[in-house]
Specification:
By secondary structure, this protein is an alpha/beta fold. It has eight helices and eight strands; from the N terminus they run αβαβαβααβαββαβαβ. The strands form two sheets. Strands 1, 2, 3, 6, 7 and 8 form a six-stranded parallel beta sheet that branches. The protein has a two-stranded parallel ribbon with strand order 4-5. The protein is elongated. The chain binds zinc ion. Zinc ion binds next to loops.
């Protein structure tokens, strides 16, 4: 009899402890879910803060049209994004793409006909002779005239410049007096260097834009920019995810001038 009573007490105590343990676990579980919900909400609010802030991106390509320009146009079309192309007369085989670029709603700007910096920066006359040639080519192919300029600049720090930057300062003044507007950039993808991989170009862009809300991004679609074409879909996918608004250059666009000193 005594033994049975003890067993009953033991069973009662066990049940009681089991119930207390169950309640404790349930509460802990709820608390965990509450904490996870709060963390998810905080993260969502953070995203909304980032996305609510207007971030404006001007994609610019230099040195084309070239062998990768059509692919670049196709990728831009996939994302319904327009860009600005500062064009050259470097590759006759792709001159017909000037018309395509313009017809697809992208902006055409003038880079230079020859991209031979030593020659075009040898004098003011030499610069405007070259500019006249690329301007005429654009006019002939697209029946449009562009007042937007991107000066060819060698920004590779490992090489010394083959021209005196003082003439560029002089050309800035002449161009503005003639009604042109020139646009440099505030983020360089670095793709001018043909040794850069698509991964490196992607990392460059994403890392350099992260603390900015207005970007003029310098890329290239010349003869050696296969890696740019390869990196572009990933770059655009990430920039779209980050909520950037893409614009082409127009008369109201900020110019992002480089300091030549
Ligand atoms: Zn260039």
């Amino acid at each position: 009899m005594e033994k049975r009573k003890m067993l009953q007490i033991f069973i009662c105590c066990s049940c009681f402890l089991a119930v207390i343990y169950g309640i404790a676990r349930l509460d802990k579980g709820h608390r965990r879910y509450r904490e996870e919900d709060a963390a998810a909400m905080a993260s969502k609010e953070q995203d909304n803060i980032v996305f609510a802030q207007q971030r404006i991106m001007y994609l610019t390509f230099e040195d084309g049209p070239g062998p990768y320009t059509q692919d670049i146009l196709n990728i831009l079309d996939d994302y319904h994004i327009k860009a600005t192309f500062f064009v050259t007369g470097l590759n006759n085989d792709y001159t017909h793409l000037l018309k395509t670029v313009s017809a697809e709603g992208h902006m055409l700007g003038l880079h230079s006909f020859s991209h031979d910096c030593t020659e075009i920066y040898s004098s003011v006359e030499a610069y405007f002779t070259d500019l006249g040639k690329i301007s005429s080519l654009v006019k002939k192919e697209t029946n449009t005239v562009s007042d937007f300029i991107r000066f060819p600049l060698n920004t590779d720090n490992t090489e010394s410049l083959s021209y005196d930057t003082a003439i560029i300062a002089k050309l800035h003044e002449h161009c503005e007096n003639l009604g042109y507007t020139y646009y440099d950039w505030n983020v360089d993808s670095g793709d001018e260097d043909p040794d850069l991989t698509a991964d490196e170009i992607y990392e460059n862009v994403i890392q350099k834009v992260q603390d900015k809300d207005k970007v003029m991004l310098r890329m290239h679609d010349g003869n050696t920019q296969k890696a740019t074409k390869e990196a572009l879909p990933r770059i655009l996918k990430e920039l779209v995810r980050q909520g950037w608004e893409f614009r082409i250059i127009d008369d109201s666009t900020e110019t992002f001038h480089q300091n030549l000193d």
